Amino acid sequence: MRIVKPAMTVAVGALLLAGCGSNGYDRTRPDEFAVARQAPLIVPPDFALVPPRPGEPTPASADSRSQAVQALFGGPAPRPQLETQVLKDAGADRADPGARSVVGDPDTSVVEKGSTTQAIIAAPQGAGQEATVTTPQ
Questions:
Q1: DSSP code per residue over 39-100
Q2: Max Cα distance, the chain (Å)
Q3: Residue whose C-alpha is closest to residue 75's, from 87, 84, 65, 66
Q4: Mind listing the pLDDT tens digit for each residue in 52-94?
Q5: Total-model pTM
Q6: Which of 66, 72, 86, 98 is the most interior residue, by most CB within 10 Å?
Q7: Are 130 and 124 within 8 A, CB to CB?
């Protein structure tokens, strides 16, 4: 019994390895690059193109960035009537379109609220152990 198991294992292994051989089993595959004929690289002539004339200004080409934005998002989408009314009531026609760019400008007027407002904002939330009450004297 001790010799039978290793002998069976060797026999099964030999059979499996024999199946991988080239006897009766053809592993050749078609070449995928040989299936289609490769066309020659020829650029056909374009008769609409003319060479530039010396001294003539170059034709104005469209900005590639604006072309990309137009291709991605299209033109301005029409707004619903309700949205238009809300924007009109909010004063969108009187809004400064560059407000975000002038927020950090040094010439922008800023109101100083003082140290009391800073202390209120910095105070911990809730009424935990950190909160204390002081009475004015």
A1: PP--PPP-TT--PPPTTPPPPPPPPHHHHHHHHHH-SPPPPPHHHHHHHHHHTGGGS-TTGG
A2: 107
A3: 66
A4: 788 877 766 667 888 888 888 777 778 889 988 998 898 888 8
A5: 0.24
A6: 86
A7: yes
